[in-house]
Each structure stands twice: as structure tokens, then as C-alpha cells.
Amino acid sequence: MELSTGIILEILNGATPEKPTFQVINAKKIESSNTVDRYRLLLSDGEYVYSHVMLAAQLNKMWENNEVPNMSVIEATRYLCNKLQGDKRVIILLDLKVLASGSDVKCKLGNPTQLNPNSIPTSTPKPAMDSGINEQKAAVFKPQNNNNTALSTGNTTVQQTHQVNSLEKKSLTPGTPNSRVHSIASLTPYQNRWRIRARVTMKSNIRTWSNSKGEGKLFNCNLLDDSGEIRMTGFKEQVDKFYDMLELNKVYYISRCTLKTANKQYSNLNNDYEMTMNPETVIEPCNDDSDLPVISFDFVKLSELEQCKPPTSVDVIGVVKVCNDVNSVVGRQSQKEILKRDLQIVDQSGLAVSLTLWGDEANKFDGQGFPIVAVKGARLSDFNGRSLSVSGSSQLIVNPDTKEAHVLRGWFESGGRDQNFSSYQSEGGSGGGQSSNWKTFLQVKSENLGQGEKADYYTAKGTVVFVKKDNCMYQACPTADCNKKVVDLGNGQYRCEKCCREFPNHKWRMILSCNVADHTDNQWITCFQDSAEGMLGMKADELGQLRETDEMRFDQVLQDALFKSYIFRMRAKVETYNDESRLKTVCVAANNVDWKEYGNQLISQIAQLGI
DNA sequence: CCCCCCCC
């Protein structure tokens, strides 16, 4: 256990040694108009005690949990020294580790003297050879604690080495101190002098707002360097000053923004802080940008969206196969009219997915010539299975000059455009809003599908093992939209009670009860007209004729329907008759198995097992 | 100082 003797003075004079150790003599909560409590510490390095020490608010809980009782020896893992007005200097502890609890140390180490914050002596830089002097100092230093805590001095040589290292890490360019460039990851609200060099990886449109607090305009952009990303927002005057100057993908020197804690609710960037431009903000273009990372995409194939759990953000790239006209909707909450345009994008995975653009971006989008769109951070929802939207934090790039885009273009022009594409949209219309939700029949039971207030939709591959012949079809009202069963009046007339009319004819409607099996279980399902006709390979009217004229052939049609496999889309809901409840499963669609697609589905299910 | 990301 060592205190970094004399280190406080060096830090106050601008040194930035790594991981200095201190003793916390005292801590007190300061009164603040701010909603956040702040702690002020009395910190000792064994030689001096300094009182202008603040704790970054995120460390408050260590004190609130009594993890750092007075007299604890700590290592300052991250810290800053800021100059305030009047040349006052304050040390801010950003991150720390307790090396020895005050409950063990119990007393003040060494015999430190109080530093007067208003007259801090300049520490003369000590050359490496000077360490002997330091050791002399150490000899003078008398630890009062004589238990097992041996105290020694900080080693100046080592400290200076650390200092050089840490400056190297911060890309200190030889020359004036002003040429120092900070990394984005090092920015905190506790610094007041910094400059970053960063690439613009997202630039929003200019938006306006109007609320009870006022109105104005703003934009934001994301900045990237090799240490991380940060969001930057500009309001009003700063919009006028910097919006046109900041270009997507270009690199700038940026300084003097206001740092604040990021509201994670609205930011998908990996940074605890974000920054706001202010009247002091300086932004200068930087032309030498080759060393900085460029906007990077982590593209998800459109077929892989199935495995993404909405709502989430994804990077996607696709060819705009369909570009719908721009139209407008009224926002449910805002009650404002918003322009929108739906695109349908496709890729080599054979999927077509809807991508919605909003506002100005929707208005200005030109869908001519099947453009390629890449979206960083598109919002994925489960509407119609899967849908994408370009949200405020997304960046849309049209016809990017990237390898992925060229490969995609090549595929599209050499036959991809003529391909048939699958969609996540559930067949049969009424199952919207769900993903395909693949289930086995055993899962349907074990997961209690259909027990909720709303019906559950799921997709299953199954084989027809039994078809009920009785009551599989009925005579229905011939009116186009009426499927009501008619009464055969026996005189060649059929009466529909719903339409209150008699007709000389009727149509045939089907209600086919089938038992369908997969490798786990079986399930009784009800198939109405369209799916039943498909499974029997015959139109209901023809089948009705057959039933009346040639029962053997009719039986054969039902027989031939057995042991065929389909991809079933089901609607499951528990229904209760006479106090008896049972799961009713309606087949919304029965599609022939596309073995390639189904194989891919199985592959992705296997992938989801994470084996 | 925004922070809605909309609608079907």
C-alpha cells in the first residue's frame, strides 16, 4: 500500500500520472441547487491535503453505500484537474478503486499539510536523475500507521514515464499544447478544454419544434473516431452556423461544446455523454482523414430479420424494387401531418421487406432506376411480420459506393430483378402484426397458445393425416359476400335468412376438419374455403357436384388429400361452449412447402439454438 | 432548448 507522495502538487501543476493513490480524509455532500448530489473530498497524498476535490456524480453511490469510509486508501483510476476562474484548480475523480478500507486503515497516513488552494506552489519538474531527492523526502516522511501498511513515496521516475505514456495515448502532437487531440471516449462533462478530431457518420435533417417551453430548430449528428462515438446536437444559431459545413463522412476538429449525460432512451450510441453546440463552439474541417475509421455497417440480410427481435435497430442494404408514392399520415400522438413513403427493398436472400421513409427524406426520395439503399440503424418493427423504418437516428445512404452495393447491383441486374421474393407478411390477411412465429404442435400446447385475450397466430409445417368427411361442405347463399347457409325449400328454391331472400341456386362452401401432424404432436384444425380447396385440389362447387353425383370419386378426392405436407398459417384461440373450453385452430393458409425456403428456416432455427 | 420517429 503506497500513497503517491507529492502527487497532488504535480497534478495541480498539470501532470497526469496514471493511477495515483490517495487517502480520503473526509467527504461531505455539498448543498446544490442541482438535483444531483455532489460530494467534495478532502484528499491526502501523504505530503499534502487538498480540499478542492470533487467526485463525479456516478461515484456517489460508493459513498451512499458506505464503500469508502474516511481514511480509505484509493487509487484514482480516472481523474481530471480543471482550472476554474481565478486560477483555482479542482481535481475531479471520475473513477476509483478502494485499495484499503478506512475501517481497516483507521487513521491519517503520514503528516500531510494543508495546501492553500489560492496559492499553489509550482512543482519544479524533476528530471529522472532526481529520484534521490525524492527518496530523501521519503525518509522525512513518517507514517503514523505502524501496522502492516507500509508507506512509501511515489516514484517520480515512474510517474514521469506514466505521464509521457498517457500523453502519447491522447495523441499529443509534438509542438504547442493546443495541438493535442482528445479521444471521443475521454470526453466528460468535467473537462473544459478539449478538442476532438472526428468523422461525421450521421447527419439528421433540420427539425423544428414548438412546445410550451418555446420553439426552434435543431439537428444532430454522430461523430466517430477510433475511440468511440458521440452524438452532437446544434440548436438555432448553431444550425445556421454549422449545418451546411458539416458533411456526412467528412472529418472535423471540434472543440468547446457542452457535454452532458446522454439520455439513453433516445440514443443508440455507446457513450454515456452527448454534446450540444454552444456559441463558443469551434468546428474546422480536417482534410487529412485517412487514419480515422469510416462509417461501418453491420449488414443484416433481409432473410435474417426473422431472427432479430423487434423493436430493434439494424443495418440493412437492399435494392428498391418498389417505390410507392409519397403520402401523408397524421401522427397519433402529435396530431401532426407527416409525409411518408413506403419502399420495398429486396436482396440476394430472396426476401422483400418494406422500408418507410419519413418527412423530407420521403418527399425527396427518387425511386427511379431501382436505387440501392443502405440504412445504418434502421428501426425494425414486427408490423406485417417485419418492417423497417428510417428513424431519426438512422442514416440513409442512396447508392453507396461500397463493395456490398456493387455486389447487390450485379446480382439484381443479372436476374435478381426477375426473381420471386418472399415476404414476412402472413398469408390470408388477418394475421397482420405478427412475425411468422414458427411452432411445433407440441409447442402450441406447452406454450398455451390461444389462451390469451387475443388469438395467437403461428406457422407450422404439418402433414394431413385425417380429413373429416361429414359436414365438410354446405350449401351457401349465392350472394357474393354472403356465405350464410341456405335452407333447401325442396322446390328448387334456397332461402337465405341473412339476406331474407330465396334463390334458385346456391354455392358450395367448405368447412373442412383435418387432423394435422408434425414430428411432435398433432392438431385438429378447421380449413375454410380457400385453404380447403387448395388442399383438396378442387373447387368447392365442383366438389359439391361430385358429392351429389359420384360419391366414390368424392371420397377419393378426400382420400387423395391425405399425407400431404403444407406450411400452415394458423390462428389459435380457446373457445368455450357449455363450460367446456377447447383450443380452436383455424387454418388461415395452407401453402405448399417451398423446400429451399423451409430448409433455410430450419437452418435459422438451428442457428437460434446457439449450438 | 430536442427526445416524435409517427401510419397501416
Automatic annotation (TrEMBL):
Gene Ontology BP annotations: DNA recombination; DNA repair; DNA replication
All residue ranges annotated as the Replication protein A OB domain in the record: 302-399
Annotated family: Belongs to the replication factor A protein 1 family.
Annotated Pfam families: Rep-A_N (PF04057), Rep_fac-A_C (PF08646), REPA_OB_2 (PF16900), tRNA_anti-codon (PF01336)
Coiled-coil spans in chain: none
NCBIfam families: rpa1
Keyword Zinc-finger in annotation: yes
Binding partners and assembly: Component of the heterotrimeric canonical replication protein A complex (RPA).
Subcellular location: Nucleus
Name of this protein: Replication protein A subunit
Region (Disordered): 110-131
Entry function: As part of the heterotrimeric replication protein A complex (RPA/RP-A), binds and stabilizes single-stranded DNA intermediates, that form during DNA replication or upon DNA stress. It prevents their reannealing and in parallel, recruits and activates different proteins and complexes involved in DNA metabolism. Thereby, it plays an essential role both in DNA replication and the cellular response to DNA damage.
Domain Replication factor-A protein 1 N-terminal: 3-100
Location of the OB domain: 195-273
Main location, first listed in the record: nucleus
CC annotations in GO: nucleus
GO molecular function: DNA binding; zinc ion binding
Domain of life: Eukaryota
Amino acid composition bias (Polar residues), ranges on this chain: 111-125
Gene3D superfamilies in the cross-refs: Nucleic acid-binding proteins
4Fe-4S recorded as keyword: no
